[in-house]
From TrEMBL:
Gene: Dgri\GH20895
Region (Disordered) location: 24-61
Gene3D superfamilies for this protein: Isopropylmalate Dehydrogenase
PANTHER family reported in the protein's UniProt record: DECARBOXYLATING DEHYDROGENASES-ISOCITRATE, ISOPROPYLMALATE, TARTRATE, ISOCITRATE DEHYDROGENASE [NAD] SUBUNIT ALPHA, MITOCHONDRIAL
Protein's recorded name: isocitrate dehydrogenase (NAD(+))
Length: 386
């Protein structure tokens, strides 16, 4: 404190001296200025350095990897082995535990990583925390890419469609309660804001992926307000793309019937949460099994790639989970990262496995273990390089 007062006092003295030397009398004595000593004024404290983002290599893409629960460890381990074999230039930000220890909620560091990297891939998660992740990262839609794998037995062999569904509203809003004993109520929420952004994304996706027909599945004949609102958003967006893509409306039951009877006619199917969930399961079943189906969640912040595999605690650690959907989801992710050549390698390796071998996990009629199927894919990739 005394030092500060001394400095202030010296500053006042210096100021009075400058005024004096500006007068005629003072200018004659200005030669004495050389006797004055410079005073060192302490510099203000520097601001605390801001938290730096992890350095990004020009040759590597950063991706957030969420291990998940149950069979998630086996799926993500298999994925990393395939990436290593294919020499994919990806730097993982791994989250083995996605929960915050203090709050027991989704980790803010995980959300921060996803927003920074804009791309993530995950194993199956506990539904409670998955809902929290969707809210924190603002995931509003899920895209399931349902396409037959040559060599895999399925009911039909001409399926090539995409199902896009809402994941936060509709019947899956999660608002339900007891009105009185014996009477329960579930609230179906449908906002124009969410319906509009889903509609915009659907038409954008169709344009970018050369899809020619969009079919919206609904029950607006019964639920005129909620389903009617979702349908109206799709109609309004369709008017902006007239001539570039065919738009059609189908009642949900009719859409299911058409998918089963003539799966080859489906291109892009879009629906609200519960309807879309049913369509995804039907389409993945037609292609041979849900574990074969890749997909990803959509947010304004980025994309999280995923499979249809559930936690399956009863299968965890038994080495029998099917990692095929995870590999195909990763191939989709690599195209988003502009690593098309690496995506082609993984995609071709999976397709070659199904065409040229009988290596299958139990869920699709085989006896192979997850590790054996993974090794087979890695071996095919290694042979490609030779």
């Amino acid at each position: 404190m005394n030092t500060i007062r001394k400095i202030r006092s010296i500053r006042r003295i210096d100021a009075s001296q400058l005024l004096y030397y500006s007068t005629e009398k003072g200018s004659k004595e200005s030669k004495k200025c050389s006797d004055l000593k410079a005073i060192a004024v302490p510099k203000p404290d520097k601001k605390k350095p801001q938290k730096k983002e992890p350095p990004k290599s020009k040759d590597q893409k950063r991706v957030t990897l969420i291990q998940g629960d149950g069979v998630g460890c086996e799926l993500t381990t298999a994925l990393r082995q395939v990436f290593e074999s294919a020499k994919v230039p990806v730097k993982w930000e791994v989250f083995v535990d996605y929960k915050d220890c203090e709050t027991n909620k989704i980790s803010p560091k995980l959300v921060e990583s996803l927003k920074r990297n804009k791309v993530g891939i995950k194993g199956p998660m506990d539904p409670v925390f998955l809902k929290q992740l969707r809210k924190a990262f603002d995931l509003y839609a899920f895209v399931a890419v349902c396409r037959n794998l040559k060599g895999q037995k399925s009911v039909y062999d001409k399926l090539d469609c995409v199902v896009i569904r809402d994941v936060i509203e509709g019947e899956y809003s999660g608002i339900e309660h007891n009105v009185v004993p014996g009477i329960l109520q579930s609230i179906k929420v449908c906002t124009s804001l969410n319906a509009d952004r889903i509609a915009r994304y659907v038409f954008k996706y169709a344009k970018e992926n050369q899809r020619k027909k969009i079919t919206v599945a609904h029950k607006a004949n019964i639920m005129q307000l909620t389903d009617g609102n979702f349908l109206e958003s799709m109609r309004q967006e369709a008017t902006k793309h007239f001539g570039s893509v065919t738009f059609e409306e189908r009642y949900m039951d009719t859409a299911c019937l058409n998918l089963v009877m003539q799966p080859g006619l489906s291109d892009v199917l879009v629906a609200s949460s519960m309807y879309g969930d049913v369509l995804v399961m039907m389409a993945s079943g037609i292609m041979g099994g849900k574990s074969l189906c890749p997909g990803f969640g959509v947010s304004k912040h980025g994309l999280i790639y995923d499979t249809l595999n559930k936690i399956n605690m009863n299968l965890a650690g038994k080495d029998i989970i099917n990692p095929t959907g995870m590999f195909l989801s990763a191939a989709l992710m690599l195209r988003t990262l502009k690593l098309n050549s690496h995506a082609d390698i993984i995609q071709c390796a999976v397709e070659q496995l199904f065409q040229d071998t009988d290596i299958r996990t139990p869920d699709v009629g085989g006896t192979a273990k997850c590790s054996e199927l993974t090794k087979a894919v890695c071996d095919i990739i290694s042979n490609m390089e030779e």
